[in-house]
């Protein structure tokens, strides 16, 4: 059969693609109707070359059932006379198309729920946010859809409740259900409030109480541990950590949790672990204002972004094991960074740090080079880290630090001669 002649099967494939591409627009009331699909027109040459194929094509459309109107026209051919042939397939509305592609139930459910929500909140008709949630409208169970509507109704009526998620008085609502749908709820809520640009997080947008940010630290100094009842490894809301009766002489911030957990005892020192971009929250820790602070993160573009963010709240912070020498001496351990950090000014980086960052972005050493903190050899890395801390602890406590062959640090009282 000539390729320009559209068979019923090919027409259905076309309609499936059209439905998948346009169903959200159609739900919002857009689209030109009727939708007319041209079936092609055979020529004298087509009939001469394969009359049987053209006859089979025409018969397939003559015997076709289902939604959509097949339009036929009389055609005159110079060599073969006059014949009645199919020319187009026409659909009056989106419902007919949905039926033709086996989407009747989903389309009817989505349109019914869409109209239900517009009746409750007419303002939703002013944007396509609701229509863009076609899968939600079409596929949510009745219980989930009712839960969503009830939740939006309550949040709209109580914009500043100050409640935790767990306290929301919506029947059947649980935190896991909501946590999986924060983007959906936030998008609809912004549309309800006609907010076009909103940088607030989900809790702020909904007027809910945000759980306190928790930070994990380790007190690497026995004397500091005595001040908190012997505790070493502590995870708590950062506001509570700020009240700890400690005055460390040095602080080391590490991005890798396993690295932080494995750090040995170091006099006067506290380790803070796995903060990521939340490192800026450390400004509330009053005991960070005096000590020497070093940051050890991954050598990749995101690692330097976190370093910049950290130095904004801790200007005295120094980086360790994030220099070019460390990177190039561990080439066999490199991996690939999944995506580069956006190229924005990092004003808090030193000239050396900025140079490494720029070279990473430029691909000077290869595409998306990354050296993960946890891949560095442990003993030599700890020795370098301790030396970075050593000067301040020596001055403050009269203690020297050394590293044993297995990488564990020990304190030794300084002596003369």
Automatic annotation (TrEMBL):
Every DUF3322 domain range: 9-189
InterPro entries the record matches: DUF3322, JetD_C, UCP028408
Domain Wadjet protein JetD C-terminal intervals: 207-380
One Pfam family per UniProt: DUF3322
Name assigned to this protein: DUF3322 and DUF2220 domain-containing protein
């Amino acid at each position: 059969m000539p390729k320009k002649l559209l068979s019923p099967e090919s027409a259905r494939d076309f309609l499936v693609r059209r439905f998948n591409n346009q169903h959200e627009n159609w739900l919002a009331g857009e689209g030109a109707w009727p939708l007319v699909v041209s079936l092609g027109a055979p020529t004298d040459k087509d009939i001469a070359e394969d009359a049987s194929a053209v006859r089979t094509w025409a018969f397939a459309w003559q015997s076709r059932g289902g939604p959509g109107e097949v339009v036929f026209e009389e055609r005159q051919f110079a060599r073969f006379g006059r014949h009645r042939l199919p020319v187009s397939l026409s659909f009056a509305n989106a419902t007919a198309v949905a039926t033709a592609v086996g989407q009747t139930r989903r389309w009817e459910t989505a349109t019914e729920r869409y109209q239900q929500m517009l009746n409750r909140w007419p303002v939703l008709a002013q944007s396509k946010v609701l229509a863009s949630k076609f899968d939600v409208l079409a596929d949510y169970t009745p219980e989930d859809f009712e839960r969503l509507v009830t939740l939006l109704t309550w949040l709209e009526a109580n914009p500043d409740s100050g409640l935790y998620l767990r306290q929301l008085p919506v029947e059947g609502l649980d935190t896991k259900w909501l946590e999986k749908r924060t983007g959906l709820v936030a998008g609809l809520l912004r549309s309800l409030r006609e907010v076009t640009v909103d940088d607030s997080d989900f809790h702020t947008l909904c007027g809910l109480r945000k759980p306190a940010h928790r930070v994990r630290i380790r007190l690497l100094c026995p004397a500091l541990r005595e001040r908190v009842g012997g505790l070493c490894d502590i995870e708590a809301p950062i506001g509570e950590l700020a009240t700890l009766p400690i005055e460390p002489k040095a602080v080391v911030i590490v991005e890798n949790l396993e690295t932080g957990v494995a750090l040995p005892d170091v006099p006067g020192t506290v380790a803070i672990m796995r903060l990521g971009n939340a490192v800026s929250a450390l400004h509330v820790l009053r005991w960070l204002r005096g000590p020497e602070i070093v940051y050890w993160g991954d050598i990749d573009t995101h690692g330097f972004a976190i370093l910049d963010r950290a130095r904004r709240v801790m200007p005295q912070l120094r980086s360790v094991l994030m220099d070019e020498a460390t990177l190039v001496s561990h080439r066999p351990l490199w991996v690939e960074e999944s995506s580069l950090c956006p190229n924005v000014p990092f004003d808090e980086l030193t000239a050396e740090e900025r140079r490494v960052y720029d070279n990473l972005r430029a691909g000077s050493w290869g595409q998306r080079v990354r050296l993960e903190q946890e891949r560095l050899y442990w003993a030599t890395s700890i020795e370098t880290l301790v030396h970075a801390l050593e000067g301040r602890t020596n001055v403050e406590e009269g203690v020297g630090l050394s590293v044993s062959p297995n990488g564990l640090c020990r304190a030794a009282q300084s002596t003369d001669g």
